[in-house]
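User: Sequence for Copine-3 below. C-alpha coordinates please.
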Amino acid sequence: MAANCVSKVELSISCNNLLDKDVGSKSDPLCVLLQSIGDDKWTEVERTERVKNCQDPEFSTKLHIDYHFEKVQKLKFGVYDIDNKSVNLSDDDFLGGFECTLGQIVSSRKITRPLQLKAGKPAGKGTITVTADETKDNRAIVMEVEAKNLDKKDMFGKSDPFLEFFKQEEDGKWQLVHRTEVIKNNLNPSWKKFTVSLHTFCSGDLNKPIKVHCSDYDSDGSHDLIGVFQTNVSDLQKAHASPVEFDCIHPEKQKKKKSYKNSGVIRIKDCKLEAQYSFLDYVMGGCQINFTVGIDFTGSNGDPRSPDSLHYLSPNGVNQYLSAIWSVGQVVQDYDTDKLFPAFGFNEKAPQDFKVSHEFPLNFNPSSPYCQGVQGIVDAYRMVLPQIRLYGPTNFSPIINHVARIAAGAAQQPNAAQYFVLLIITDGEITDLDQTRQAIVNGSKLPMSIIIVGVGEADFKAMEFLDGDNGVLKSLTGEPAARDIVQFVPFKQFDKAPKEALAQSVLAEVPNQLVSYFKMRNMAPVNPPSPTK
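Assistant: C-alpha coordinates for Copine-3:
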Protein backbone atom coordinates (compact mmCIF):
# COMPACT_ATOMS: atom_id res chain seq x y z
CA MET A 1 0.00 0.00 0.00
CA ALA A 2 2.79 2.39 0.91
CA ALA A 3 4.62 1.79 -2.38
CA ASN A 4 1.73 3.23 -4.39
CA CYS A 5 1.81 6.57 -2.58
CA VAL A 6 3.75 8.90 -4.88
CA SER A 7 4.21 11.66 -2.30
CA LYS A 8 2.64 13.66 0.47
CA VAL A 9 0.98 16.92 -0.49
CA GLU A 10 0.48 19.94 1.76
CA LEU A 11 -2.46 22.24 0.96
CA SER A 12 -2.60 25.90 2.05
CA ILE A 13 -6.10 27.42 2.18
CA SER A 14 -7.31 31.00 2.05
CA CYS A 15 -10.72 32.56 1.32
CA ASN A 16 -11.96 35.97 0.24
CA ASN A 17 -15.21 37.88 0.66
CA LEU A 18 -17.06 35.16 2.59
CA LEU A 19 -20.76 35.31 3.38
CA ASP A 20 -21.51 37.03 6.70
CA LYS A 21 -23.78 34.78 8.76
CA ASP A 22 -23.29 36.36 12.19
CA VAL A 23 -25.52 39.21 13.36
CA GLY A 24 -23.46 42.14 14.64
CA SER A 25 -20.09 40.58 13.77
CA LYS A 26 -18.28 38.74 10.99
CA SER A 27 -18.26 34.99 10.37
CA ASP A 28 -15.83 32.68 12.21
CA PRO A 29 -14.70 30.46 9.32
CA LEU A 30 -13.07 27.04 9.27
CA CYS A 31 -12.26 24.88 6.22
CA VAL A 32 -12.67 21.10 6.18
CA LEU A 33 -11.19 18.73 3.58
CA LEU A 34 -13.15 15.60 2.65
CA GLN A 35 -12.08 12.76 0.37
CA SER A 36 -14.46 10.51 -1.59
CA ILE A 37 -14.60 6.87 -0.47
CA GLY A 38 -17.02 5.88 -3.22
CA ASP A 39 -20.78 5.51 -3.48
CA ASP A 40 -21.26 9.24 -2.85
CA LYS A 41 -19.76 8.89 0.64
CA TRP A 42 -17.01 11.13 2.01
CA THR A 43 -14.58 10.88 4.88
CA GLU A 44 -12.89 13.81 6.60
CA VAL A 45 -9.14 14.11 6.02
CA GLU A 46 -8.26 17.20 8.06
CA ARG A 47 -9.57 20.63 8.96
CA THR A 48 -8.04 24.04 9.56
CA GLU A 49 -8.34 26.15 12.68
CA ARG A 50 -11.26 28.55 13.13
CA VAL A 51 -10.45 32.22 12.44
CA LYS A 52 -12.67 34.57 14.44
CA ASN A 53 -14.47 37.53 12.86
CA CYS A 54 -12.88 37.35 9.44
CA GLN A 55 -14.34 37.46 5.93
CA ASP A 56 -10.91 37.00 4.27
CA PRO A 57 -9.22 34.24 6.30
CA GLU A 58 -5.76 32.89 5.64
CA PHE A 59 -5.58 29.63 7.57
CA SER A 60 -2.28 28.79 9.26
CA THR A 61 -3.14 25.09 9.67
CA LYS A 62 -2.08 23.21 6.54
CA LEU A 63 -4.01 20.20 5.24
CA HIS A 64 -2.04 17.07 4.34
CA ILE A 65 -3.00 14.23 2.03
CA ASP A 66 -1.24 11.30 0.35
CA TYR A 67 -1.13 11.74 -3.42
CA HIS A 68 -1.66 8.57 -5.49
CA PHE A 69 -0.89 9.04 -9.16
CA GLU A 70 -2.83 5.91 -10.09
CA LYS A 71 -6.10 7.03 -8.45
CA VAL A 72 -8.67 9.71 -9.19
CA GLN A 73 -8.82 11.29 -5.74
CA LYS A 74 -12.03 13.30 -5.49
CA LEU A 75 -11.85 16.06 -2.87
CA LYS A 76 -14.44 18.35 -1.36
CA PHE A 77 -13.58 21.57 0.49
CA GLY A 78 -16.23 23.00 2.83
CA VAL A 79 -16.11 26.37 4.59
CA TYR A 80 -18.22 26.74 7.73
CA ASP A 81 -19.06 29.52 10.18
CA ILE A 82 -18.29 27.97 13.58
CA ASP A 83 -20.33 29.25 16.53
CA ASN A 84 -19.92 26.43 19.08
CA LYS A 85 -17.32 24.05 20.49
CA SER A 86 -18.77 20.87 18.95
CA VAL A 87 -16.66 19.21 16.24
CA ASN A 88 -19.87 18.20 14.47
CA LEU A 89 -20.28 20.60 11.53
CA SER A 90 -23.96 19.78 10.88
CA ASP A 91 -25.11 22.49 13.30
CA ASP A 92 -22.84 25.21 11.82
CA ASP A 93 -23.62 27.56 8.92
CA PHE A 94 -22.26 26.34 5.59
CA LEU A 95 -20.61 29.25 3.76
CA GLY A 96 -19.87 27.27 0.61
CA GLY A 97 -17.47 24.76 -0.86
CA PHE A 98 -16.24 23.22 -4.05
CA GLU A 99 -15.26 19.83 -5.46
CA CYS A 100 -12.26 18.91 -7.57
CA THR A 101 -9.62 16.18 -7.83
CA LEU A 102 -6.22 16.23 -6.16
CA GLY A 103 -4.71 15.81 -9.61
CA GLN A 104 -6.27 19.12 -10.72
CA ILE A 105 -4.74 20.94 -7.74
CA VAL A 106 -1.31 19.29 -8.10
CA SER A 107 -1.11 19.98 -11.84
CA SER A 108 -2.03 23.67 -11.36
CA ARG A 109 -0.24 24.08 -7.98
CA LYS A 110 -2.65 26.92 -7.16
CA ILE A 111 -6.35 27.21 -7.97
CA THR A 112 -8.98 29.80 -7.02
CA ARG A 113 -12.67 28.92 -7.32
CA PRO A 114 -15.99 30.55 -6.38
CA LEU A 115 -17.69 28.89 -3.42
CA GLN A 116 -20.87 26.93 -4.12
CA LEU A 117 -23.71 25.88 -1.80
CA LYS A 118 -24.34 22.83 -4.00
CA ALA A 119 -22.82 21.62 -7.26
CA GLY A 120 -23.68 24.26 -9.84
CA LYS A 121 -25.33 26.55 -7.27
CA PRO A 122 -23.18 29.60 -6.33
CA ALA A 123 -22.97 30.57 -2.66
CA GLY A 124 -23.66 34.19 -3.61
CA LYS A 125 -20.20 35.43 -2.71
CA GLY A 126 -16.80 34.22 -1.66
CA THR A 127 -13.84 32.43 -3.24
CA ILE A 128 -11.41 29.80 -2.00
CA THR A 129 -7.75 29.47 -3.00
CA VAL A 130 -5.89 26.18 -2.59
CA THR A 131 -2.12 25.99 -3.02
CA ALA A 132 -0.31 22.63 -3.20
CA ASP A 133 3.25 21.78 -2.18
CA GLU A 134 4.95 18.41 -2.13
CA THR A 135 6.47 17.55 1.24
CA LYS A 136 9.78 15.69 1.29
CA ASP A 137 11.31 16.80 4.59
CA ASN A 138 10.42 14.95 7.79
CA ARG A 139 11.95 17.53 10.14
CA ALA A 140 9.97 19.90 12.34
CA ILE A 141 10.84 23.14 14.09
CA VAL A 142 10.06 23.29 17.81
CA MET A 143 9.99 26.75 19.36
CA GLU A 144 9.32 28.52 22.65
CA VAL A 145 8.78 32.28 22.43
CA GLU A 146 8.10 35.09 24.90
CA ALA A 147 8.01 38.89 24.75
CA LYS A 148 9.06 41.73 27.05
CA ASN A 149 7.69 45.25 27.44
CA LEU A 150 5.22 45.23 24.55
CA ASP A 151 3.35 48.43 23.72
CA LYS A 152 0.02 48.95 25.48
CA LYS A 153 -2.69 49.00 22.81
CA ASP A 154 -5.96 48.73 24.78
CA MET A 155 -7.54 51.82 26.33
CA PHE A 156 -8.83 50.02 29.42
CA GLY A 157 -6.24 47.29 29.67
CA LYS A 158 -2.80 46.29 28.45
CA SER A 159 -2.58 44.30 25.17
CA ASP A 160 -3.80 40.85 24.11
CA PRO A 161 -0.76 39.79 22.07
CA PHE A 162 -0.35 36.95 19.56
CA LEU A 163 2.31 36.14 16.96
CA GLU A 164 2.02 35.28 13.28
CA PHE A 165 4.93 33.75 11.34
CA PHE A 166 5.18 34.16 7.55
CA LYS A 167 7.57 32.66 5.01
CA GLN A 168 8.52 34.50 1.82
CA GLU A 169 7.47 32.74 -1.37
CA GLU A 170 9.44 32.77 -4.63
CA ASP A 171 7.20 35.58 -5.96
CA GLY A 172 8.03 37.74 -2.94
CA LYS A 173 4.62 37.29 -1.29
CA TRP A 174 4.36 36.29 2.36
CA GLN A 175 2.48 33.12 3.33
CA LEU A 176 1.18 32.56 6.87
CA VAL A 177 2.74 29.42 8.37
CA HIS A 178 1.86 29.62 12.08
CA ARG A 179 -0.34 31.64 14.43
CA THR A 180 0.09 31.39 18.21
CA GLU A 181 -2.67 31.56 20.79
CA VAL A 182 -3.77 34.95 22.19
CA ILE A 183 -2.57 35.85 25.69
CA LYS A 184 -4.99 38.26 27.34
CA ASN A 185 -3.99 41.49 29.08
CA ASN A 186 -0.25 40.89 29.23
CA LEU A 187 2.70 42.99 28.02
CA ASN A 188 5.21 40.25 28.94
CA PRO A 189 3.57 37.14 27.43
CA SER A 190 5.02 33.64 27.15
CA TRP A 191 3.36 31.54 24.44
CA LYS A 192 2.96 27.77 24.47
CA LYS A 193 5.71 25.71 22.87
CA PHE A 194 4.72 24.87 19.30
CA THR A 195 5.83 22.46 16.59
CA VAL A 196 5.54 23.14 12.85
CA SER A 197 6.89 20.97 10.05
CA LEU A 198 10.03 22.48 8.56
CA HIS A 199 8.48 22.22 5.10
CA THR A 200 5.51 24.32 6.22
CA PHE A 201 7.65 26.80 8.13
CA CYS A 202 10.37 27.58 5.59
CA SER A 203 10.03 25.05 2.72
CA GLY A 204 13.06 23.29 4.21
CA ASP A 205 15.31 26.30 3.44
CA LEU A 206 16.98 27.42 6.68
CA ASN A 207 17.93 30.77 5.11
CA LYS A 208 14.51 31.61 3.67
CA PRO A 209 13.27 34.98 5.02
CA ILE A 210 10.78 34.66 7.89
CA LYS A 211 8.67 37.63 8.98
CA VAL A 212 7.05 37.73 12.44
CA HIS A 213 4.09 39.97 13.29
CA CYS A 214 3.19 40.70 16.90
CA SER A 215 -0.39 42.03 17.13
CA ASP A 216 -2.96 43.02 19.75
CA TYR A 217 -6.06 40.85 19.35
CA ASP A 218 -9.45 42.55 18.95
CA SER A 219 -12.63 40.47 19.03
CA ASP A 220 -14.05 42.24 15.97
CA GLY A 221 -11.09 41.12 13.85
CA SER A 222 -9.45 44.56 13.58
CA HIS A 223 -6.19 43.53 15.24
CA ASP A 224 -3.65 46.29 15.97
CA LEU A 225 -0.06 45.74 14.90
CA ILE A 226 2.42 46.04 17.80
CA GLY A 227 5.54 45.36 15.76
CA VAL A 228 7.41 43.29 13.19
CA PHE A 229 10.81 41.72 12.71
CA GLN A 230 12.49 39.53 10.08
CA THR A 231 14.79 36.58 10.55
CA ASN A 232 15.43 33.04 9.23
CA VAL A 233 15.60 29.57 10.75
CA SER A 234 19.40 29.61 10.87
CA ASP A 235 19.28 32.61 13.21
CA LEU A 236 16.35 31.24 15.20
CA GLN A 237 18.25 27.99 15.82
CA LYS A 238 20.93 29.87 17.75
CA ALA A 239 18.38 30.03 20.59
CA HIS A 240 19.01 26.33 21.25
CA ALA A 241 22.30 27.34 22.87
CA SER A 242 21.03 30.54 24.53
CA PRO A 243 17.95 32.77 24.02
CA VAL A 244 17.91 35.11 21.01
CA GLU A 245 16.19 38.52 21.10
CA PHE A 246 14.66 40.64 18.32
CA ASP A 247 13.43 44.23 18.49
CA CYS A 248 9.73 44.38 17.69
CA ILE A 249 9.46 47.40 15.34
CA HIS A 250 6.30 49.32 14.43
CA PRO A 251 7.16 50.91 11.02
CA GLU A 252 4.92 53.99 11.47
CA LYS A 253 6.23 54.73 14.96
CA GLN A 254 9.79 54.32 13.74
CA LYS A 255 9.18 56.93 11.01
CA LYS A 256 7.62 59.46 13.38
CA LYS A 257 10.01 59.30 16.35
CA LYS A 258 13.75 59.70 16.10
CA SER A 259 14.15 58.43 19.64
CA TYR A 260 12.05 55.31 18.91
CA LYS A 261 13.81 52.11 19.92
CA ASN A 262 11.18 49.38 19.73
CA SER A 263 7.64 48.38 20.72
CA GLY A 264 8.94 45.55 22.83
CA VAL A 265 11.38 42.67 22.51
CA ILE A 266 10.53 39.19 21.18
CA ARG A 267 12.67 36.58 22.87
CA ILE A 268 13.18 33.12 21.34
CA LYS A 269 13.68 30.97 24.45
CA ASP A 270 14.46 27.79 22.51
CA CYS A 271 14.43 26.66 18.89
CA LYS A 272 15.46 23.24 17.63
CA LEU A 273 14.86 20.87 14.73
CA GLU A 274 13.67 17.35 15.35
CA ALA A 275 12.50 14.45 13.21
CA GLN A 276 8.75 14.21 12.74
CA TYR A 277 7.79 10.63 11.91
CA SER A 278 4.66 9.58 10.02
CA PHE A 279 2.46 6.50 10.38
CA LEU A 280 4.22 4.95 7.37
CA ASP A 281 7.61 5.64 8.97
CA TYR A 282 6.60 3.59 12.02
CA VAL A 283 4.92 0.77 10.08
CA MET A 284 7.68 0.53 7.46
CA GLY A 285 10.19 0.85 10.29
CA GLY A 286 8.99 -2.39 11.90
CA CYS A 287 6.00 -1.52 14.13
CA GLN A 288 3.51 -4.41 14.37
CA ILE A 289 -0.20 -3.63 14.75
CA ASN A 290 -1.91 -6.25 16.93
CA PHE A 291 -5.64 -6.67 16.27
CA THR A 292 -8.08 -7.91 18.95
CA VAL A 293 -11.85 -8.36 18.49
CA GLY A 294 -14.52 -8.13 21.17
CA ILE A 295 -18.07 -9.19 20.24
CA ASP A 296 -21.12 -8.15 22.25
CA PHE A 297 -23.36 -11.10 23.19
CA THR A 298 -25.65 -9.12 25.50
CA GLY A 299 -29.25 -10.29 25.73
CA SER A 300 -30.44 -7.02 24.16
CA ASN A 301 -29.14 -8.33 20.81
CA GLY A 302 -31.99 -10.86 20.73
CA ASP A 303 -31.96 -14.65 20.42
CA PRO A 304 -29.57 -15.58 17.53
CA ARG A 305 -32.18 -18.11 16.28
CA SER A 306 -34.71 -15.33 15.71
CA PRO A 307 -34.61 -13.33 12.43
CA ASP A 308 -35.08 -10.19 14.58
CA SER A 309 -31.74 -10.78 16.35
CA LEU A 310 -28.62 -8.81 15.42
CA HIS A 311 -26.75 -12.13 15.70
CA TYR A 312 -29.12 -13.93 13.32
CA LEU A 313 -27.28 -15.33 10.31
CA SER A 314 -29.11 -14.58 7.08
CA PRO A 315 -29.56 -17.35 4.47
CA ASN A 316 -26.27 -16.30 2.88
CA GLY A 317 -24.55 -16.63 6.26
CA VAL A 318 -23.88 -13.00 7.21
CA ASN A 319 -25.04 -10.32 9.67
CA GLN A 320 -23.81 -6.86 10.72
CA TYR A 321 -21.33 -8.34 13.22
CA LEU A 322 -19.67 -10.49 10.55
CA SER A 323 -19.65 -7.64 8.02
CA ALA A 324 -17.85 -5.39 10.52
CA ILE A 325 -15.28 -8.08 11.35
CA TRP A 326 -14.58 -8.69 7.66
CA SER A 327 -14.31 -5.11 6.50
CA VAL A 328 -12.09 -3.84 9.34
CA GLY A 329 -10.07 -7.02 9.78
CA GLN A 330 -9.10 -7.33 6.13
CA VAL A 331 -7.37 -3.95 6.30
CA VAL A 332 -5.71 -4.40 9.70
CA GLN A 333 -4.40 -7.92 9.06
CA ASP A 334 -1.92 -6.58 6.49
CA TYR A 335 0.04 -4.91 9.30
CA ASP A 336 0.42 -8.01 11.52
CA THR A 337 2.93 -10.58 10.29
CA ASP A 338 1.74 -13.64 12.26
CA LYS A 339 -1.97 -12.90 11.59
CA LEU A 340 -2.91 -14.46 14.94
CA PHE A 341 -5.74 -12.42 16.43
CA PRO A 342 -7.21 -12.81 19.93
CA ALA A 343 -11.03 -12.81 19.69
CA PHE A 344 -13.42 -12.60 22.65
CA GLY A 345 -17.11 -12.52 23.34
CA PHE A 346 -18.53 -10.64 26.30
CA ASN A 347 -21.74 -10.77 28.34
CA GLU A 348 -22.73 -14.33 27.46
CA LYS A 349 -23.17 -17.55 29.41
CA ALA A 350 -20.58 -20.00 28.13
CA PRO A 351 -21.47 -23.70 27.66
CA GLN A 352 -18.90 -25.08 30.15
CA ASP A 353 -20.42 -23.63 33.34
CA PHE A 354 -23.00 -21.10 32.10
CA LYS A 355 -21.50 -18.34 34.20
CA VAL A 356 -21.66 -14.84 32.73
CA SER A 357 -18.34 -13.97 31.09
CA HIS A 358 -17.08 -10.53 30.13
CA GLU A 359 -14.06 -11.71 28.13
CA PHE A 360 -14.69 -15.22 26.82
CA PRO A 361 -12.35 -16.62 24.10
CA LEU A 362 -14.36 -17.36 20.97
CA ASN A 363 -12.37 -20.55 20.47
CA PHE A 364 -13.07 -21.70 24.09
CA ASN A 365 -9.30 -21.77 24.78
CA PRO A 366 -8.40 -19.26 27.55
CA SER A 367 -4.67 -20.11 27.36
CA SER A 368 -4.54 -19.42 23.60
CA PRO A 369 -7.45 -17.22 22.42
CA TYR A 370 -5.89 -16.65 18.99
CA CYS A 371 -7.68 -17.07 15.67
CA GLN A 372 -5.78 -17.54 12.41
CA GLY A 373 -6.49 -14.45 10.34
CA VAL A 374 -9.84 -12.77 9.86
CA GLN A 375 -11.29 -16.00 8.47
CA GLY A 376 -10.38 -17.68 11.76
CA ILE A 377 -12.36 -15.06 13.72
CA VAL A 378 -15.35 -15.53 11.41
CA ASP A 379 -15.19 -19.32 11.76
CA ALA A 380 -14.93 -19.11 15.58
CA TYR A 381 -17.90 -16.69 15.72
CA ARG A 382 -20.08 -19.00 13.61
CA MET A 383 -19.06 -22.01 15.72
CA VAL A 384 -19.75 -20.34 19.08
CA LEU A 385 -23.11 -18.78 18.18
CA PRO A 386 -25.30 -21.87 18.74
CA GLN A 387 -23.47 -22.86 21.94
CA ILE A 388 -23.89 -19.77 24.12
CA ARG A 389 -26.75 -17.96 25.81
CA LEU A 390 -26.89 -14.19 25.47
CA TYR A 391 -27.04 -12.43 28.80
CA GLY A 392 -26.09 -9.15 30.52
CA PRO A 393 -25.16 -6.64 31.85
CA THR A 394 -23.10 -4.95 29.09
CA ASN A 395 -19.63 -4.40 30.53
CA PHE A 396 -16.91 -2.97 28.28
CA SER A 397 -14.18 -2.34 30.84
CA PRO A 398 -13.01 -6.00 31.27
CA ILE A 399 -12.05 -6.46 27.61
CA ILE A 400 -10.49 -2.97 27.41
CA ASN A 401 -8.45 -3.73 30.54
CA HIS A 402 -7.48 -7.13 29.07
CA VAL A 403 -5.90 -5.50 25.99
CA ALA A 404 -4.46 -2.70 28.15
CA ARG A 405 -2.56 -5.26 30.26
CA ILE A 406 -0.88 -6.65 27.14
CA ALA A 407 -0.22 -3.15 25.77
CA ALA A 408 1.33 -2.17 29.13
CA GLY A 409 3.87 -4.96 28.68
CA ALA A 410 4.71 -3.70 25.19
CA ALA A 411 5.03 -0.15 26.57
CA GLN A 412 8.06 -1.30 28.57
CA GLN A 413 9.97 -1.92 25.34
CA PRO A 414 12.50 0.80 24.48
CA ASN A 415 11.31 1.20 20.88
CA ALA A 416 8.19 1.61 18.74
CA ALA A 417 7.76 -2.10 18.03
CA GLN A 418 4.09 -2.82 18.85
CA TYR A 419 0.70 -1.11 18.81
CA PHE A 420 -2.69 -2.61 19.72
CA VAL A 421 -6.09 -2.05 18.10
CA LEU A 422 -9.20 -3.33 19.90
CA LEU A 423 -12.33 -3.63 17.75
CA ILE A 424 -15.52 -3.77 19.85
CA ILE A 425 -18.73 -4.55 17.97
CA THR A 426 -21.81 -3.79 20.05
CA ASP A 427 -25.53 -3.05 19.96
CA GLY A 428 -24.83 0.07 22.02
CA GLU A 429 -26.13 -0.56 25.52
CA ILE A 430 -23.47 -0.14 28.21
CA THR A 431 -23.78 -0.79 31.95
CA ASP A 432 -20.31 0.04 33.31
CA LEU A 433 -19.89 3.51 31.78
CA ASP A 434 -17.83 4.91 34.68
CA GLN A 435 -15.45 1.91 34.75
CA THR A 436 -15.16 2.09 30.94
CA ARG A 437 -14.27 5.79 31.11
CA GLN A 438 -11.51 4.98 33.60
CA ALA A 439 -10.27 2.08 31.45
CA ILE A 440 -10.06 4.38 28.39
CA VAL A 441 -8.23 7.12 30.33
CA ASN A 442 -5.75 4.48 31.56
CA GLY A 443 -5.42 3.09 28.01
CA SER A 444 -4.69 6.55 26.59
CA LYS A 445 -1.22 6.30 28.17
CA LEU A 446 -0.55 2.98 26.38
CA PRO A 447 0.13 1.94 22.75
CA MET A 448 -3.50 1.15 21.96
CA SER A 449 -6.59 2.37 20.09
CA ILE A 450 -10.22 1.34 20.54
CA ILE A 451 -12.63 1.13 17.62
CA ILE A 452 -16.32 0.77 18.46
CA VAL A 453 -18.73 -0.25 15.70
CA GLY A 454 -22.38 0.11 16.70
CA VAL A 455 -24.80 -2.34 15.05
CA GLY A 456 -28.58 -2.11 15.01
CA GLU A 457 -30.83 0.87 15.66
CA ALA A 458 -30.01 1.65 19.32
CA ASP A 459 -29.33 5.08 20.80
CA PHE A 460 -25.54 5.35 20.67
CA LYS A 461 -25.16 8.48 22.83
CA ALA A 462 -22.92 6.61 25.30
CA MET A 463 -20.62 5.49 22.47
CA GLU A 464 -20.41 9.03 21.07
CA PHE A 465 -19.56 10.25 24.58
CA LEU A 466 -16.65 7.79 24.80
CA ASP A 467 -15.32 9.00 21.43
CA GLY A 468 -13.29 12.08 22.43
CA ASP A 469 -14.34 14.14 19.39
CA ASN A 470 -16.53 16.49 21.47
CA GLY A 471 -13.82 17.31 23.97
CA VAL A 472 -11.29 15.40 26.06
CA LEU A 473 -12.78 12.35 27.78
CA LYS A 474 -12.33 12.42 31.55
CA SER A 475 -12.59 9.72 34.18
CA LEU A 476 -15.11 10.01 37.02
CA THR A 477 -12.36 11.55 39.17
CA GLY A 478 -11.71 14.23 36.52
CA GLU A 479 -8.46 12.78 35.12
CA PRO A 480 -8.29 13.68 31.40
CA ALA A 481 -7.28 11.19 28.71
CA ALA A 482 -3.66 11.69 27.64
CA ARG A 483 -4.83 11.45 24.01
CA ASP A 484 -7.94 10.51 22.05
CA ILE A 485 -7.90 6.72 21.45
CA VAL A 486 -11.58 5.93 20.73
CA GLN A 487 -13.27 6.01 17.33
CA PHE A 488 -17.01 5.25 17.16
CA VAL A 489 -18.85 4.50 13.91
CA PRO A 490 -22.53 3.42 13.56
CA PHE A 491 -22.73 0.50 11.11
CA LYS A 492 -26.09 1.62 9.68
CA GLN A 493 -24.38 4.57 7.96
CA PHE A 494 -22.51 2.04 5.81
CA ASP A 495 -25.06 -0.76 5.52
CA LYS A 496 -25.54 -0.23 1.78
CA ALA A 497 -22.07 1.14 1.05
CA PRO A 498 -19.07 -0.90 -0.11
CA LYS A 499 -17.36 -2.61 2.83
CA GLU A 500 -14.21 -0.59 2.04
CA ALA A 501 -16.14 2.56 3.05
CA LEU A 502 -16.77 1.24 6.58
CA ALA A 503 -13.12 0.19 6.95
CA GLN A 504 -11.86 3.61 5.84
CA SER A 505 -14.13 5.46 8.25
CA VAL A 506 -13.44 3.10 11.17
CA LEU A 507 -9.68 3.16 10.71
CA ALA A 508 -9.38 6.86 9.82
CA GLU A 509 -8.04 7.95 13.20
CA VAL A 510 -5.73 5.00 13.95
CA PRO A 511 -2.65 6.36 12.10
CA ASN A 512 -2.74 9.67 13.99
CA GLN A 513 -3.43 7.87 17.28
CA LEU A 514 -0.41 5.60 16.75
CA VAL A 515 1.84 8.56 15.88
CA SER A 516 0.54 10.59 18.84
CA TYR A 517 1.45 7.77 21.27
CA PHE A 518 5.02 7.32 20.05
CA LYS A 519 5.48 11.09 19.83
CA MET A 520 4.23 11.44 23.42
CA ARG A 521 6.87 8.87 24.43
CA ASN A 522 9.58 10.45 22.20
CA MET A 523 10.02 7.12 20.43
CA ALA A 524 11.50 6.90 16.93
CA PRO A 525 10.67 3.99 14.59
CA VAL A 526 12.65 0.79 15.18
CA ASN A 527 14.39 1.43 11.84
CA PRO A 528 13.97 5.18 11.24
CA PRO A 529 14.16 6.61 7.73
CA SER A 530 16.98 8.91 6.68
CA PRO A 531 16.56 12.55 7.88
CA THR A 532 15.02 13.69 4.60
CA LYS A 533 12.58 11.88 2.40
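The CA atoms of residues 353 and 388 lie 11 Å apart.
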